[in-house]
């Protein structure tokens, strides 16, 4: 039965990301329910269901997907603004996937096995990954706050909170690499970050900044490695 779910998801991915030009997206945002591209986009999703199944016997599935897709996209176009566009994008995709699972369940008696949520190992993994995101960022901020270099108005500004999110991503990647026994990838990640940082530090000519970055990087990697090995030990 899972093959039917996969086919419907493939049809969705093709329709939403491969066969939807930016011009269609802008037209829907501008004209909302009056946009002809909205209806063409929905029709395309219906056609794609027939294509991936290579059968017209799935017309009920195709029609259901089309109606639900229209409702979700219509609501998105009505409520979307510049401020909430990013949030609504992810909400839109979550609703689409949820509607796909619902249609799959109704027509193919599909059932998602979520028994893994009752397993202790799953919650160990979740707790470890969560700890390496915001909690670790706050812990690191408290530890290295006293070494924070004085800001220079003439120095180039970085993206807002970029360092925090880079740290979160690198720690989560280390978590995944260690739990999957790809220790060489951790070294590659450290080397890659060092290369990208080398140019900035070289141009800065600031010893304090260099030391601050090194402390932050090593502390971030160190915490991620310790936590990852700890969770790995608990899983065994």
UniProtKB/TrEMBL annotation:
One Pfam family per UniProt: DUF3307
Record has Mitochondrion as a keyword: no
Lineage summary: Bacteria, Pseudomonadati, Bacteroidota, Sphingobacteriia, Sphingobacteriales
Protein name according to UniProt: DUF3307 domain-containing protein
Domain of life of the source: Bacteria
Membrane-spanning intervals of the chain: 38-56, 62-79, 86-108, 123-148, 168-192, 212-235
Protein's UniProt keywords contain Membrane: yes
Species, as recorded: Pedobacter jejuensis
Keywords: Membrane, Transmembrane, Transmembrane helix
């Amino acid at each position: 039965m899972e093959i039917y779910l996969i086919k419907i998801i493939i049809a969705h991915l093709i329709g939403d990301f491969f066969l939807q030009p930016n011009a269609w997206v802008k037209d829907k945002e501008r004209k909302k329910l009056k946009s002809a591209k909205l209806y063409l986009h929905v029709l395309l999703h219906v056609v794609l269901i027939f294509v991936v199944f290579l059968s017209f016997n799935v017309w009920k599935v195709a029609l259901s997907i089309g109606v639900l897709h229209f409702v979700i996209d219509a609501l998105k176009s009505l409520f979307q603004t510049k401020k909430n566009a990013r949030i609504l994008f992810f909400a839109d995709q979550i609703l689409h996937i949820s509607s796909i699972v619902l249609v799959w369940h109704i027509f193919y008696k599909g059932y998602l096995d979520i028994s893994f949520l009752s397993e202790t190992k799953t919650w160990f993994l979740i707790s470890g990954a969560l700890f390496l995101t915001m909690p670790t960022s706050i812990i690191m901020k408290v530890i290295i706050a006293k070494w924070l270099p004085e800001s220079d108005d003439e120095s180039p500004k970085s993206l807002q909170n970029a360092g925090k999110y880079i740290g979160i991503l690198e720690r989560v990647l280390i978590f995944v690499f260690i739990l999957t026994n790809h220790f060489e990838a951790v070294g590659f990640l450290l080397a890659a970050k060092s290369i990208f940082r080398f140019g900035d530090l070289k141009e800065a000519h600031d010893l304090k900044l260099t030391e601050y970055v090194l402390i932050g990087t090593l502390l971030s990697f160190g915490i991620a490695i310790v936590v990852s090995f700890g969770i790995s030990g608990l899983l065994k």
